[in-house]
Design goal:
The complex is a heterodimer of chains A (about 325) and B (about 600).
Chain A lengths: L2 H22 L14 E4 L10 H16 L3 E4 L7 H13 L5 E3 L8 H9 L4 E4 L10 E4 L2 H15 L7 E6 L5 H13 L4 E7 L4 H12 L4 E6 L2 H13 L3 H4 L1 E5 L3 H9 L4 E5 L1 H16 L7 E3 L2 E5 L6 H7 L7
Parallel strand pairs in A: 1-2, 1-3, 3-4, 4-5, 5-11, 6-7, 6-8, 8-9, 9-10
Antiparallel strand pairs in A: 10-12
Helix pairs in contact in A: 2-11, 5-6, 7-8
Chain B lengths: L1 H4 L4 H67 L1 H7 L7 H18 L3 E8 L5 E2 L16 H8 L5 E8 L7 E11 L6 E10 H10 L7 E5 L5 E3 L3 H5 L7 H9 L5 E3 L3 E7 L6 E7 H4 L3 H42 L16 H41 L3 H16 L3 H19 L5 E3 H18 L4 E7 L7 E3 L3 H11 L8 E10 L2 E8 L6 H12 L13 H14 L4 E7 L3 E9 L8
Parallel strand pairs in B: 12-14
Antiparallel strand pairs in B: 1-2, 1-5, 3-4, 4-5, 6-7, 6-10, 8-9, 9-10, 11-13, 14-15, 15-17, 16-17
Helix pairs in contact in B: 2-10, 3-4, 11-17, 12-13, 13-14
Classes of the chains: A alpha/beta (about 325), B alpha+beta (about 600).
Chain lengths: ~325, ~600
């Protein structure tokens, strides 16, 4: 008997066995990423008030990481304002050569060198919430703030349809921040045929918004106010609630979903809120990272969307969890 | 390849048949075992899951039942009863405080109760804490829990999970238990009791009872809306979807307990108290994490088994075919005329027996062959003797007559000459019984004969003997030339008038000794020549069927062929009236003598 004949038959058999067993083994393609080191996530802030925007972002991240079996480490400064600290943290992390960096940039310009350094070392970067002024990031996952601004403007237009007072004021949190700039641009685009009398910047201080609104309310032609973030919306609402009859005369559209804002929405002081989806943002960010690491194509920009919330739909089952996040039990 | 599989040799036939059969057997066995293992693993995992699901449903149920008991206890409270039934109208504010204290006690005893409140049909809402303010922006009588409780009389109604905005400035996730407060004696609707359960408790239960890393539970209410889902936001924004319709269909189908959408296994159980459908989700990959290992080990075992079987089969087929091949090789030597014995052989009994029988056979054949050779030898000898014996009885008495006649004529010299020639002739014919004699003796023999015949037929013929002296010591079969000469004289020369001539030559040609006997006598017609040639080719045993003619020639030819082989012997050439030439050809042999 020839040796090769044995070998050939044996190999044939082995092959057949493997093949047939593989047929039964079809559904178990694994969708997990195996890495020797965890990916790094740098947030704008990590020490958060309960149910803060960033905590919800992290929840979404946790869910996606669990789904894809991805290891990650989260870091970031305590407060969003600590830009230099964030830069320092990012630089340190980059030198550890993580397989991937997820970054919510606290400054559009100042983090560019760090991102460039990461690119030099071959570390892929994905940005979320706030981008950097660079084409290096593979993907940017955030709320489309221009679109959100347009939504706010459109809603105010709708609300003011029957109103005789036609003037509209914009109250913005800060002049230099990209969310403010984008939202205002969206609002102005939507309201280009309306009488927008100006933008009041309040430096993220509720009190300033309150005082500015008190002044604005003296204007008999004022029919609507758009407040571009939580602090401005609350300041505006405080003033509108205080001035007699103002809640009936002036329509207020705000941003974000602080509990107080929701109370104002329920009581009719604020008439509509534009709300982001931080959970989805976190989820999509990590999902994009996982897809990228698995070698799948990822979109360069991902809009996680925003919702228009009014008194009528605020207790709708599908919005409840976005507006009133369930306290976590861990 | 085709030839390999075409069962050329016994070995390959055994090997391939066994291998294919064993492969099929192992293969089928493996498939069955693999399927069986997978099914077992799957079933046991699903069974575990079902048990967990049952426990979860029971726990949720008993939790709700517990809450119902609390609501009963609250309703049966004396203070509440008297307040609701309006027995203590006069002391209203006091009785409100008393009821509130009761509610407060319950809340403090249970940290999973968010709020207990009483909504009398007419009268202020009583909550557990005086400082709490009812949300002014809602009409609680329009809330589903109030409406449902009103409709259900004193039955408990359980809502889905939702954000309770009853208290101003508070938004908490709850599941509400509500029931109508009905007067004992009639159907009078007096108000609604609301118990808000913190939703965390249910969330906790669902999450703690999830199986595996990626398994999870979620709850649908009786309409198929989500009561709880661990990733509700994803579900609502369509980043994730659950086959709710299929799951609900599962409830009606009693036979099918599990729905599999290809990636996940869904099982559902309905809690009888709440009407909620608790759904347990198990990703396929959780069930089959070990499939890869199972598959690999099965394949490895199969491979090893197959290799062992392959080698064993090879061994077996070798064991069978090796002795057979040895037998075949030995038997093949028969082709070349060698009969070898096989002798003792390492093999199975059957083959040993075969070898033994073969050996016996070969031994018998050898004996038979020896017998045959001996018999052939004997036959040849007797044939030769017989042939020699046929030589010229007439010649002897003719010669003796001639001697007598010469004696009477007193020709003493001639008598002496003829007698000595005759004596020589006979001496050489006998040659001490040897078959082969030197050529020179053969020449002396034929010369003696010629001497005698010349004296008898005075002046009838002349002769020449011209033989290469180099051949003198070469052995020749005795009495080969004399019959030819006799033939030439009696059938050639004697038949014609005038003096005849006989020439005898001898030389070596191409390793053979070639003698010719030529006469210029009558010769033979073509027909006679043909007859003679045919006679020479006819086997010796059948010679009697031919005429006397050329008998001496045929004898010599037959003897030469018997002795030297078929390719040697005589050739004749003759023409009428010209004479006959007969050529003798036989191989050169010197010195030795055989037979």
């Amino acid at each position: 008997m020839k040796k090769w004949f044995i070998l050939l038959l044996s190999l044939m058999a082995a092959l057949a066995l493997f093949l047939v067993l593989s047929i039964f083994y079809d559904q178990t393609r694994s969708e997990t990423v195996e890495l020797d080191r965890p990916i790094q996530i740098v947030m704008k802030s990590i020490e958060t008030e309960p149910m803060d925007f960033w905590e919800i972002v992290m929840r979404g991240m946790r869910e996606a990481a669990k789904e894809y079996g991805l290891d990650y480490e989260i870091s970031g400064p305590s407060h969003e304002k600590e830009i230099d600290l964030q830069i320092e943290m990012v630089n340190k992390i980059i030198e550890k050569r993580p397989p991937l960096l997820l970054l919510a940039a606290s400054d559009y310009e100042k983090l560019v060198p760090s991102v460039e350094r990461a690119s030099e070392l071959g570390i892929p970067v994905i940005t979320f919430d706030s981008n950097v002024d660079s084409s290096i990031p593979i993907s940017f996952i955030a709320t489309d703030n221009i679109e959100a601004g347009k939504k706010a403007g459109d809603e105010l237009k709708r609300l003011m349809k029957g109103s005789s007072r036609r003037e509209i004021a914009i109250v913005s949190h800060i002049k230099e921040v990209s969310t403010g700039i984008d939202r205002e641009a969206g609002v102005r685009e939507s309201l280009q045929n309306e009488q927008v009398i100006g933008t009041w910047y309040i430096d993220v201080e509720q009190e300033k918004a309150y005082l500015a609104t008190l002044e604005l309310l003296k204007n008999g032609e004022l029919g609507g106010i758009i407040a571009l973030n939580e602090a401005s919306a609350l300041g505006v609402a405080d003033a509108v609630a205080e001035v007699d009859g103002a809640r009936d005369r002036v329509w207020v559209v705000g941003f974000d979903n602080a509990i107080q804002e929701l109370e104002y929405l329920e009581s009719g002081v604020i008439d509509a809120l534009i709300v982001q989806r931080p959970y989805n943002m976190g989820y999509m960010t990590v999902k994009t990272a996982a897809e990228f690491l698995m070698g799948n194509p990822v979109a360069a920009e991902l809009n996680t969307g925003s919702l228009l919330i009014t008194k009528d739909n605020m207790f709708k089952r599908e919005y409840q969890e976005i507006l009133f996040p369930v306290r976590n039990i861990e | 390849m085709k030839k390999m599989l075409g069962f050329g040799t016994l070995g390959s036939r055994i090997y391939s048949t066994f291998t294919i059969m064993m492969f099929a057997a192992i293969f089928v066995m493996q498939l069955v075992a693999f399927r069986f293992t997978v099914n077992t693993v799957q079933n046991s995992t699903l069974e575990t899951n079902r048990t967990m699901l049952g426990q979860l449903t029971t726990q949720i149920d008993s939790y709700i039942v517990g809450m119902e008991r609390i609501s009963n206890a609250v309703l049966e409270d004396d203070e509440l009863q008297s307040y609701i039934l309006g027995k203590k109208d006069a002391l209203k504010s006091d009785s409100i405080a008393a009821v509130r204290t009761t509610l407060e006690n319950y809340i403090q005893a249970r940290d999973d109760i968010s709020e207990i409140a009483i909504f009398p049909k007419d009268g202020p809402v009583i909550m557990s804490d005086q400082s709490l303010e009812v949300n002014p922006w809602i009409d609680f009588t329009k809330q589903p829990w109030y409406q449902d409780a009103m409709k259900a009389h004193d039955q408990t109604v359980v809502t889905s999970s939702y954000v309770q905005n009853l208290v101003k400035g508070q938004y908490s996730w709850v599941v509400s238990l509500s029931r109508g407060i009905v007067a004992e004696q009639g159907q009078n609707f007096l108000g609604v009791l609301l118990v808000d359960l913190k939703f965390n408790r249910i969330q906790e239960l669902c999450q703690s009872m999830a199986i595996g890393e990626k398994g999870y539970n979620f709850i649908l209410d009786s309409q198929g809306n989500y009561v709880f889902h661990p990733t509700q936001q994803l579900v609502y924004s369509d980043l994730k979807s659950e086959p709710v319709r299929k799951i609900m269909a599962l409830l009606e189908d009693t036979e099918q307990a599990v729905y599999n959408d290809g990636e996940r296994y869904f099982m559902v159980e309905t809690s009888p108290h709440t009407g909620w459908h608790v759904v347990s989700v198990l990703p396929s990959e959780e069930i089959v994490t070990d499939w890869k290992n199972v598959q690999f080990s099965y394949a490895a075992i199969g491979l090893v088994l197959f290799l062992i079987v392959g080698l064993a089969t090879n061994g077996v087929s070798q064991g069978i075919t090796k002795p057979l091949r040895k037998l075949r090789d030995i038997m093949k030597s028969v082709d070349t005329g060698d009969f070898h014995l096989i002798g003792p052989i390492k093999a199975t009994e059957e083959i040993q027996e075969l070898a033994r029988d073969y050996d016996i056979m070969v031994t018998r054949i050898r004996e038979l062959m020896q017998d045959n050779v001996r018999e052939q030898e004997l036959k040849r000898k007797s044939d030769l003797k017989a042939l020699q014996a046929q030589i010229n009885p007439h010649f002897l008495y003719n010669t003796l007559d001639s001697i007598i006649w010469m004696g009477e004529m007193k020709q003493h010299k001639e008598v002496v000459q003829m007698t000595s020639a005759l004596s020589k002739l006979f001496r050489i014919s006998i040659s001490k019984g040897r078959e082969l004699i030197p050529v020179k003796d053969e020449i002396a023999h034929v010369q003696s004969y010629l001497t005698i015949e010349e004296m008898r037929y005075r002046d009838k013929f002349d002769y020449i003997v011209d033989v290469d002296p180099a051949l003198y010591e070469v052995k020749t079969l005795k009495i080969t030339l004399q019959p030819l000469v006799e033939n030439a004289i009696y059938h050639g020369i004697k038949e014609v008038d005038g003096k005849g001539f006989i020439r005898i030559t001898g030389e070596e040609k191409e390793g053979d000794v070639v003698f010719t006997v030529h006469d210029n006598g009558k010769g033979m017609s073509r027909q006679q020549l043909q007859e003679l040639r045919n006679g020479m080719e006819t086997p010796f045993d059948e010679r009697s069927s031919y005429s006397n003619m050329g008998m001496g020639v045929r004898n010599v030819h037959a003897r030469l062929q018997l002795y030297f082989g078929e390719e040697f012997g005589l050739t004749c050439d003759s023409e009428p009236d010209k004479g006959t030439t007969i050529t003798i050809r036989f191989p050169v042999r010197r010195g030795e003598e055989s037979v």
